[in-house]
Amino acid sequence: MPEREDAVETALRALRFRDRSGAELDARLERRGVGEAARERALETLERVGYVDDGRFARTRAEQLASRGSGDALIRHDLEQRGVAADHVEAAIAALEPERERAERIVAQRGPGARTARYLGARGFGEDAVQSAVAQTG
pLDDT tens digit string along 38-65? Predict the structure, then answer.
């Protein structure tokens, strides 16, 4: 029991300043030397009380990245790197404003052209969104 309590306390400290995925917390606990069984029990406890929710985490993180001008590919990559399950990733992206509309807003701010198209591509926007956005304002 003490190891599980220590694991829960360590995870709660990690959650103090920002939400994290279950996989991120698991990796953090593993780095701190917490055994697998204690990690599993701690994460189950935190999920049960609502402190760890990968669906919520994915939605929130996707919204943050989209509001900063990221496209679907960059958002998908970020969430996958954080260990979020594919179903949560896809649901979070589906809940966002369409990628094309986000791209059009960026083009309206930056102006149309090759430079903006490269910018959008680097920010993870798909080719269709980039072409459509540049064509609509060009």
Answer: 999 999 999 999 999 999 999 999 999 9
